[in-house]
Write a structure and sequence with these properties.
Elements (H helix, E strand, L loop, with lengths): L1 H30 L1 H6 L22 H17 L5 H21 L15 H13 L4 H24 L8
Helix pairs in contact: 1-3, 1-4, 1-6, 3-4, 4-5, 5-6
């Protein structure tokens, strides 16, 4: 049990922090007309073979740069904990979730159960097969806890005016 908690403490709070920083970035962008105009969609507004956008407007270069720099800062603060890798996986997990939502024709901002808010945990689970860390049990617990807690935190951020969607 303690080993599982240690594994979760090793990566999950960091992933949650990076994830929440995207909402704070969005809030900052909406608060500044200059910043909002300067951020660009990561997919360059390209479309896939199904004639839908690859990712959409919410997956941006600003989010990628934020994940990159948080990852660098994380590695400088705690070398060897894969914090750079996890920060990028949070971003690319969201990108994967956005890609899936576009393929399923889910509207921008609409909630997709089992994908939204846990897309990055799914990608971390896939990447952990290569890293060999964390364990499958830790990933299952991380998925479950994130699936329950993140919508609550997201609703709180919506209530505070930080997010534009409730979920």
């Amino acid at each position: 049990m303690y080993a599982l908690l240690f594994e979760l403490a090793w990566f999950l709070p960091w992933c949650w922090f990076v994830n929440m920083s995207f909402s704070l970035l969005g809030f900052a962008l909406r608060s500044s007309a200059f910043l909002e105009r300067s951020d660009r969609p990561f997919d360059g507004r390209h479309v896939f073979s199904d004639q839908r956008r690859l990712l959409g407007d919410s997956t941006t270069w600003g989010g990628f740069l934020l994940a990159f720099f948080l990852g660098v800062a994380g590695e400088l603060m705690a070398p060897g904990r894969h914090l750079f890798t996890f920060a990028l996986l949070v971003f690319f997990g969201h990108a994967l979730g956005s890609f899936i939502k576009r393929r399923l024709n889910v509207e921008r901002g609409a909630y997709l159960l089992f994908v939204d808010h846990v897309d990055y945990v799914i990608l971390i689970a896939l990447a952990s097969l290569l890293l060999g860390f964390p364990s499958f049990a830790a990933l299952l617990v991380a998925y479950g806890v994130t699936l329950i807690l993140t919508p609550l935190v997201t609703y709180g951020a919506f209530w505070l005016g930080i997010r534009t969607q409730k979920l």
